[in-house]
Amino acid sequence: AQTVTQSQPEMSVQEAETVTLSCTYDTSESDYYLFWYKQPPSRQMILVIRQEAYKQQNATENRFSVNFQKAAKSFSLKISDSQLGDAAMYFCAYFPTGTASKLTFGTGTRLQVTL
Amino acid sequence: DSGVTQTPKHLITATGQRVTLRCSPRSGDLSVYWYQQSLDQGLQFLIQYYNGEERAKGNILERFSAQQFPDLHSELNLSSLELGDSALYFCASSPHLGTQYFGPGTRLTVL
């Protein structure tokens, strides 16, 4: 069974600084997607970034980037120039590309942004 | 705004009752997924429909059922409600095998 582990229940970063959230996963599949979702206090689930496993290049979306290490099954999220609006729960998620696939989520990391 | 709509936003009901949650996917998306987010269980996959057909089942109780209609909207029916069913229920939609976009959720409170 696929599992996703986020070992940091809480993280804190100062405004304008950089923070990295960790995620590891376990799978025997070779083709899959990985995602980071953000859940602010509104509870909306917002897609932050997506990585296809077959792509070696790390995905980047503005201030958000990932470090994807396929052999190590590691998928960390780096947030640069942190802003107050980045404060939220962040969930790492795994999605195999089979026909009957579901997102498997980690337990989340709560990110606090301080002045 | 993800383009996925869910109604109602909030639902308060009593134990033993039945409720229906509704989801309209993004235009063009054929897949609809339902997830439950509770405090102690995190985000759990319930069920997936693709173009009207059930494709995958997760940790969905027998008291729960779902369907996807010809216009692609989906409904999640929860019956014989228990206190432990109180949770946030999300619907997500995607193109086939694509990124899932989540609706705003329905917060269910069972008293």
Molecular structure report:
The complex is a heterodimer of chains A (115) and B (111). Chain A has 115 residues and is mainly β. In chain A, 0% of the residues lie in helices and 52% in strands. Chain A contains no helices and twelve strands. In chain A, the strands form three sheets. In chain A, strands 2, 5, 6, 10, 11 and 12 form a six-stranded mixed sheet that branches. In chain A, strand 8 and strand 9 form a beta hairpin. Chain A is globular, with a radius of gyration of 14 Å. Chain B is an all-beta fold. Helix content of chain B is 0%, strand content 54%. Chain B is built from no helices and eleven strands. Chain B has strands at residues 5-7, 10-13, 19-24, 31-38, 42-50, 53-57, 64-68, 74-78, 87-94, 101-102, 106-110. In chain B, the strands form two sheets. In chain B, strands 2, 4, 5, 6, 9, 10 and 11 form a seven-stranded mixed sheet that branches. In chain B, strands 1-3-8-7 form a four-stranded antiparallel sheet, with no helix packed on it. Chain B is globular, with a radius of gyration of 13 Å. The mean pLDDT of chain B is 93. Classes of the chains: A mainly beta (115), B mainly beta (111).
Chart the SSEs and their pairings.
The complex is a heterodimer of chains A (115) and B (111).
Chain A: E1 3-5, E2 10-14, E3 19-21, E4 24-26, E5 32-39, E6 46-52, E7 60-61, E8 64-69, E9 74-79, E10 88-96, E11 104-105, E12 109-114
Chain B: E1 5-7, E2 10-13, E3 19-24, E4 31-38, E5 42-50, E6 53-57, E7 64-68, E8 74-78, E9 87-94, E10 101-102, E11 106-110
Parallel strand pairs in B: 2-11
Antiparallel strand pairs in B: 1-3, 3-8, 4-5, 4-9, 5-6, 7-8, 9-10, 9-11
